[in-house]
Amino acid sequence: MVEKEFKCVIDGICPFCNRRVHREVILTGIQAQRVLESIRRIGVGPVSIDHEDHVLVAYVDAHGATRRFHAFPKAVVREEIVLREMKIKRELVPLEWKRVNIKPLPVDGLDVLFIDKEGMKYSDAYWSRDIEGFLELASNIKKDIKIGMNNRDFWFITSGKVVYVVENLWNDEQFSKILWFLKRLPENIVEDSLLQAIVSFSMNKFFDEKYILEDVFRMIIDLDRMFNVNGELLTMVPLENIPEKLINTLSTRKGRYTTRILVADILTKSPDMLLSFIKNYNLLKNLKIISG
Question: Do residues 276 and 246 touch, judged by C-beta distance below 8 A?
Fold first, then answer.
């Protein structure tokens, strides 16, 4: 059987050192297969070469022509993906990523890719894009970094073993609030659909309101705590700022529940009420409608 081969020319200006690059690269075996599969799916495939103190990643098309570049310090790239002297240094070991198969909940949220780089697991339940290239990059990243992919800029945000991938949609001040929020989330988020839904939703609605993000974080801490819920109080206390639909949803509750059950119930019955529930969560606790 003839081994599959792919030839490409890496040509252009390196974005890391601003020097001209022109190299012909021949890929064979699994390297060629992975690049060709990426080209088939999204039109380009990543090819990496050693470039002094950094690694240059060229995205090439089906004709082997360079369409765009990214570059990384060697500290954030595994040596298995480095090409030296236009030859493969060693055979790439395929990364066995496991997709966490969870059902997304109906929220008006932002695209967020949740990755457990140590456990080699990811959740794309709240991600509408192709994941090609994102997983490999996330597995090599050691610190927060903004990377251009598919003509858009994406943040790879690290927090312990978790990497969050989000499109760069904010100014520096707004992003600092998002960063504060993501860095405090529990590491089991990759397998928790409800928590992912809350995060995706909150980043879309409250990215410019740190005080509300702080309330969201407090609610997340409470997700699996048992509370006494007295829905009857909702009909006795004047709550002008709480929509009637939310009052009706909660008024049927009486007994002990976790916050997770309450949020899941809202998303099932009235997903448009999640915004109001989050904004009024502390008020509901202060009025003892939800009490520990």
Answer: yes
Distances (CA, A) of 264 to 104, 107, 206, 257, 258: 12, 11, 20, 11, 10
Is 110 among the domain residues? yes
Angle at Cα 219 formed by Cα 288 and Cα 224, nearest 5°?
A: 90
Whether 193 is covered by a domain: the verdict is yes
pTM above 0.70, yes or no: no
Domain end (from 185, 200, 215): 200
**Beta bridge pairs of residue 25:** 8
Buried b (16+ CB within 10 A) or exposed e, 139-153: bbbeebeebebbeee
154, part of any domain:
yes
3-class secondary-structure state, position 144: coil
- Residue showing tokens 């950094």: 54
Question: Which residues have a Cβ under 8 Å from the Cβ of 170 and sit 6 or more positions away?
Answer: 178, 207
Contacts of 173 by beta carbon, 8 Å cutoff, 6+ apart: none
Instruction: Say how far apart CA 30 and CA 36 lie, in whole Å.
Output: 10
The total number of structural domains that make up the chain: 3
Helices (H) and strands (E) in the chain, counts: 8, 16
- pLDDT(107) > 90: no
Give me the domain span that covers residue 30: 5-83
Checking if the pLDDT of 162 tops 90, the result is: yes
**264 in helix, strand or coil?**
helix
Q: How many CA atoms lie within 13 A of 85 on its CB side?
A: 2
- Return d(Cα 173, Cα 180) in angstroms, integer: 11
What are the pLDDT digits (tens) for 36-54?
A: 887 887 778 888 888 877 7
What Cα–Cα distance (Å) separates residue 159 from each residue in 107, 118, 156, 170?
A: 24, 12, 10, 19
